[in-house]
Task: structure prediction
Amino acid sequence: MLVEASAPGKCILFGEHAVVFGQPAVAVAIEQRISVSVRPSVDEHWRLEGHRLDAKKHPHLNTLRHRLWPTKAGAPPLSIHIHGDIPRASGLGSSAALSVAACAALRVARGRWITESRNGEQSWAEGYASTIDDTDAYSTFDEEQAGLRPSTYDNRTHQIQGAEALDVDECAVLGHAVEAAAQGGRASPMDASACSHGGIVMLSDVVEHGVEHLYQRQLEMSDGRRTWQLHDLGMPVGGEDLYLVIGNTGVHAPTGAQVAKVAEAIQLEPERMKEIETIGTIARRGIAALKRGDYEAVGRAMTENQIMLRGLGVSCPELDALVRAAAPSSLGAKLTGAGGGGCMVALTRDPKTTSEAIELAGGRALVSQFGNDGVRMETIENMPIWSPDS
Ligand code: MEV
Result:
C-alpha cells in the first residue's frame, strides 16, 4: 500500500514581498520537484524517513496530518518518505512544494466523502476549497472531525477514492494555511498556488481580464486583511526558446525572518510603503509585457524589480554578485523568493552562457523552462490504505 504525489518548486518573476501587502506578482513552476510518499507505518507511530515524526521539526507535515488524516476514526499512522531536487531554504518554494505534495498524498490515501443531491448532482461532503465556507483551512481544526463520516450522512453519501479524490485548489489552500502558520501569520498564497497549479500563476488585487481567474484568497494579518485574486497566465506566447536560469548562493535565509524584516521597516517608516507600491507598478508592467510576449520588456521589469528589492534591504552581496554575473547574457535578472540569500533567477535565451557565468561567480546553476506541471500523482498502489468501513 503506497501513495506518492509530487509538486514542483517555483520561482518569482516579479513582486515578492510586495505581494504580502496585496500588490501583484507572478510565480512560475520550475522543473525541479519534491515527491512525498505515504504508506502504513510499521508500528503505532508516525514516521518520517524511518524516524518518529517530530512535530516541532516538521510543523508543515504535522499540521497537514491534523487537517486531513482521520486518526480518531481509526486510520493508521503513516510512514512518510520525501525526495526531490529542489534545494531547501533557498527561495524555490521547497516548503510549499512539500506541503502541496503531502496534502495530495494524504487526500488520495484517504479518499473523499461525496454527497449526491436528489437531482443527481455531486458535491463534497468534506474538504477545503475556495468555494466552501463551512470548513476553514486557516483555523485550528477539530481533529475529532477529520475524516469522520459527515454528520449529514445518508444513503446518498459515498466515498470516492484514488486520484479522483485529488483537488488542486484544496492542496493550494491547505499549502497556504501551513505556510502562513510557518511565517508568523504573514504569507501570500503565491508559493502554494504556483506549486499546486503549475504553469504561471499571477496574483493581483483585482480580477484581471483576458486571463483565467482561479479564485480569491484572503488572510487576516496583524495589520489588516489581505485579499488576492489568483489567475492562471497559461503558456507564455512565443516563449519556447526562453529559459530561466536559477543561481543558488548556498546561503540559507528563512522566509519568515525576511518577511518580518520588511514589515518592521514599513512599521518604522510608513512612507516606505511607496517602495512596495513601486514594486507593484513594475510587476504590472512586467505582467503586461508577459501577456504580449515582449520578453525584452519582461527582463527589464525583472531588473528594475531587483533594484527595488535591494533598496528594501532583502538582497545580499552573494545575490548581487550572481545577478551581475548573469546580466550580460540575459534579458533580466533578480533575486527570487524572500532574499537575504537563497536564489536569483535570470531570463535568458542562452542558458549555457548564463549558467557558466553564475557558476564562475560562485553560484550553483539550475535550468528550467516554462510550462511545468503542478501537483500530480506518481504512484497509487494497493489502495485503499484505510477505509472507514474496513
Ligand atoms: C517567498 O517565496 C515570497 C514572499 O513574497 C513571501 C510570500 O509571498 O509569502 C517573500
Summary: The longest helix spans residues 273-292. Residues 237-368 form a domain with the Alpha-Beta Plaits fold (CATH 3.30.70.890). The radius of gyration is 21 Å. The longest strand covers residues 25-40.
